[in-house]
Amino acid sequence: MRAKITYFLLAAVLVVYFVLVGSRGVLLIQQGTAVTVVFGAAVLVLPFIGAWFLWHTTRFARRAGRLARELEAEGGLPPDELERLPSGRIDRASADAAFARRQAETEENPGDWRSWFRLAVAYHDARDTPRARKAMQHAIALHEKAAAESR
User: Fold this and answer.
1) For 92-150, CATH number?
2) Which of 12, 26, 68, 79 lies 20 to 30 Å (CA to CA) from residue 121?
3) Which regions span the lipid bilayer (predicted)?
4) Every domain of the chain and the residues it spans
């Protein structure tokens, strides 16, 4: 719950920032000189890029959360069996061992979104965020495809 509150607070701060930057871009365009109009237009692009990124990130988080809830309801969430360091961080060797199991499971069931979800969690635990995100995106795509086929 704390992560959700933090996310929404940061998103709200970003939206305020987008409005402030956008208003500065409009003010620059209103100056009317060639340089300020070009610069103002360039400044106006930034809030749109930021809003697009925020929308995609929120959409990804909502879809991943939906998969987590569905998998939890089925009893298929991976158990937290990882060893921890005294600092509370996950032990690298423990994460690598869990990753190997999840990777083998996914290779056996490449079309199962549940396996890809668990692989994404294993990538995350192994601190490989880019691959974790790609695996989760693949799990989401497989889930949506299965949902579309069942309609």
Assistant:
1) 1.25.40.10
2) 12
3) 7-27, 33-55
4) 2-74, 92-150
